[in-house]
C-alpha cells in the first residue's frame, strides 16, 4: 500500500471510530487494532494525535454542514429553507454527529487545537445561518434587526437539542415543534409556520 493510500485508510478508519465510539476513543493503539497493523506504523503516519483528532472532528462536522447546505439550497424561500433545516436537525438518527459536537466541546476545554477547530466549525454554522436569515429579511419574510444575534440563538437551540437527543430526553416526535416554536417567535412568524405540512420538490413533508 502506498503512503498516500495508507494515510487515506487511517483517516477513514478514524472517522468511523469517532462516529461509533467518540473522539476520546481515538488513539494510536485503537487505530492499529481496527486496521490490523502495528502501533508503530500508525505512529509513523500520525505523529501528533491531538492534531489528528482535531482534524478528524473538523472533517466530520463540516461534512454534515455541507450536506445540509446542499439540501436547503434548492428551496426557493427563506421560510422554506428554515422548514427544511428544522426538519433535518430535529430528527433522530443524528446521534453520532451530535455526539461529536459534545466531544469537541469537552476536549476543547483543555486542548487548544480542538478548541480552535470547534470555533471554526461554529463560525461556519454562524455564517450559514446568517446568510439564510439575511436573504429572508431582504425578501420581507423575517422581522429581525439583529441577524447575527438571531443566528447565534438558533444555533444555541440546536446545540441544546444535540444534548437532549443523545440521552433521549423528551419526546423525539416533539423535537421539531420545540425547535420551531422559539424560532417562529424570534422571526415574527405565525405559530406552526415551520412545522406545517410543506410541499417541496413534489413531496409532502411535515
TrEMBL record:
Domain BetI-type transcriptional repressor C-terminal: 93-171
Domain of life assignment: Bacteria
Classification via InterPro entries: BetI_C, Homeodomain-like_sf, Tet_transcr_reg_TetR-rel_C_sf
Pfam families linked to this entry: TetR_C_6 (PF13977)
Stated name of the protein: BetI-type transcriptional repressor C-terminal domain-containing protein
Amino acid at each position: 500500500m502506498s503512503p498516500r493510500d495508507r494515510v487515506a485508510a487511517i483517516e477513514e478508519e478514524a472517522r468511523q471510530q469517532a462516529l461509533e465510539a467518540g473522539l476520546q476513543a481515538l488513539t494510536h493503539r485503537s487505530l492499529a487494532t481496527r486496521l490490523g497493523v502495528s502501533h508503530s506504523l500508525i505512529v509513523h503516519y500520525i505523529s501528533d494525535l491531538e492534531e489528528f483528532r482535531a482534524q478528524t472532528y473538523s472533517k466530520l462536522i463540516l461534512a454534515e454542514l455541507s450536506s445540509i447546505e446542499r439540501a436547503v439550497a434548492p428551496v426557493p424561500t427563506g421560510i422554506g429553507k428554515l422548514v427544511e433545516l428544522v426538519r433535518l436537525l430535529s430528527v433522530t438518527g443524528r446521534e453520532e454527529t451530535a455526539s461529536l459536537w459534545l466531544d469537541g466541546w469537552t476536549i476543547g476545554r483543555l486542548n487548544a487545537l480542538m478548541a480552535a477547530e470547534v470555533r471554526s466549525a461554529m463560525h461556519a454554522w454562524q455564517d450559514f445561518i446568517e446568510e439564510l436569515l439575511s436573504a429572508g429579511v431582504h425578501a420581507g419574510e423575517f422581522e429581525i434587526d439583529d441577524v447575527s444575534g438571531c443566528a447565534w440563538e438558533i444555533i444555541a437551540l440546536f446545540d441544546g437539542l444535540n444534548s437532549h437527543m443523545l440521552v433521549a430526553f423528551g419526546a423525539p416526535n416533539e423535537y421539531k415543534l420545540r425547535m420551531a416554536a422559539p424560532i417562529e417567535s424570534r422571526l415574527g412568524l405565525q405559530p406552526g409556520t415551520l412545522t406545517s405540512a410543506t410541499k417541496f420538490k413534489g413531496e409532502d413533508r411535515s
